Amino acid sequence: MSSKELDLKHVHDTEFPLPAEMQGNVAVTSLSRIYNWSRRSSMWPMLFGLACCAIEMIGTAASRFDLSRFGMEVMRATPRQSDLMIVSGTVTKKMIVPIVRLYNQMPEPKYILAMGACASGGGPFKEGYNVVSGIDKYLPVDVYVPGCPPTPQALLYGLIALQKKIDGQSLANLDDVPWYGVGPSEPAPIPILGPDIIDPRQMDLIRRQAELAARGEPTYVRELPPVVKKVKAVPSKVTKAAAAAPAEIAEDPRREEILKRRLAALARKRARDAAKAN
């Protein structure tokens, strides 16, 4: 690819100025910026639709809106080659099972865009007997696009918002890139379709309610939250974060080193943002 086709200004970091005559051939940037730039410019959405919002998604791929200028025109028919799931339409309790299964088959990193009122919160069918009140009850959603249905321009705006979110991620912060953490990522629990949809994460609650109902006791008793005692202030940010960490992280011998890296990366990011704002 020649320098005329590749605009290096997109990856150049203005913190390190370069002469104007060299900006087309040389770029001084960070590894995170190159990594994010390459991912945001080559997102591959998964080719599937659910309801009327899918017609608007198909219209967005037409030549009138030119989705290829964002690098997202290659829609794949298999989840194993996709990194963006556009949930376009009404999510029924029957369809949430294959949707979660398809999401688990997508490779990391992967993102979800909820397109339309039905995918975001149930829409006009909210609290219906066969409709899920939002895809975010089962999968982590990155961007919401409101509308019933949203126009192609609204979907393009949502895709641009997703690109901005990717640009803000840092390889030095494991919270931004959890797929590079220690060990494989946990798959999303696949709902169980029976007389009604069941979230496997609530099986213990459902089992306890069934036992109470069998004994004739009330099943919907509101429990007060446990009283949390105040903890004395810890001397440093590192130890404060370590005190709030779960037990499984506290057992990691590299815990303090990972926390220091995260805090240092966040400090550098805030400094860069402040310099750009000024």
List keywords for this structure.
single chain, 278 residues, mainly alpha, three-stranded parallel beta sheet, two-stranded antiparallel sheet, 9 helices, 5 strands, 35% helix, 6% strand, globular
What's the SSE blueprint?
Blueprint: H1 31-40, H2 52-60, E1 84-88, H3 96-105, E2 111-115, H4 117-121, E3 143-145, H5 152-167, E4 192-193, E5 197-198, H6 203-214, H7 237-244, H8 247-250, H9 255-277
Helix pairs in contact: 1-5, 2-5, 7-9
In short:
By secondary structure, the chain is mostly helical. Among the domains are: 8-40, no CATH class; 237-277, no CATH class. The chain has 9 helices and 5 strands.
What report would you give on this structure?
This protein is mainly alpha-helical and about 280 residues long. Among the domains are: about 10-40, no CATH class; about 235-275, no CATH class. It has nine helices and five strands. The strands form two sheets. Strands 1-2-3 form a three-stranded parallel β-sheet. It has a two-stranded antiparallel ribbon with strand order 4-5. The radius of gyration is 23 Å and the shape is globular. The two termini are about 35 Å apart. The model has no long low-confidence stretch (mean pLDDT about 80).
Determine Rg (CA atoms, Å): 23 Å
Uncertain runs: none
Please, what is the average pLDDT?
80
Helix content: 25-40%
What is the makeup of the main sheet? 3 strands, parallel
Count, helices: 9
Structural class of the secondary elements? mainly alpha
Distance between the termini: 35 Å
Physical arrangement of strands within the biggest beta sheet: 1-2-3
In terms of DSSP E residues, the strand content is 5-15%
Shape descriptor reads globular
The string of secondary-structure elements, in order, is HHEHEHEHEEHHHH
